[in-house]
Write the structure tokens for this entry.
Amino acid sequence: MKLVIITGMSGAGKSNAANFLEDIGFYCVDNMPPVLMNKFIDVLIENKEVSKVGIITDIRGGSFFDDLFESMEELKRRKINYEIVFLEASDEELIRRFKQTRRMHPLSQDGSLEEGIEKERARLGKLREKANHIIDTTDMIPSQFKEILQSLYTKGDKSSNITVNIISFGYKNGIPLDADLVFDVRFLPNPHYIEDLREYTGNDESVRNYVMQWPESKEFMERLKSMIDFLMPYYIREGKYRLIVAVGCTGGKHRSVTVANELYEYMKGKGDKVVVKHRDIAL
């Protein structure tokens, strides 16, 4: 089991870190009392379905937070490996973030925001010394932060972490609302007007052969593949973990299904994580 304990200064980005870890397959729990940490790990070990866990714990836990060191020692005694990611930012940036969100610092109820941050730094000093990774988010944009966590907790080519969802659809039923890229293939010859093909779909070889026999179909397919190959590294660089490519024709049964299947086979052949869905094929 891979266990990551996320902690650090309030406002430094622990919630974002949890979201980013979830994107790469971690099961994350926020604001867990450290005293429950080992019991929680027991449940996961027994379950056997979760292999990567992120636990966010910080000063919000009040007196419960003081149990963290004892809980970590128990993890060591049980030979459960873990890493600590400590997040921090400058005082000025933390103050700006708290003012922007209009939230109260956990230790500033009886004093100023600056005093709360000062108390927190002092209280977290020993934990910071034990951290495996210290990340200063002061000048970081979300995609940079995400890339750092990705580099720490994924192996191999980054492209293995993005899933491409290819959806065929019919324009008469509306464009998929969550599509990132939309390609209109209504310019291709339509099998609907061929009586022997009308009742079949792009999943059938006869329809596929009809759609792909035309020079414009072949050229479009090559250009589409080239476009996707060009875009993928940039989406990955920006920290995207799910790309939705929608291919549409009039009814969503013939041309769009054929092209979606062709793109699926191409990307699958390259080893990409890809799934295909034909939204309107049965309508």
Summary: The longest helix spans residues 215-237. The two ends are 45 Å apart (CA to CA). Residues 2-155 form a domain with the Rossmann fold fold (CATH 3.40.50.300). The chain has two domains: 2-155, 160-278.
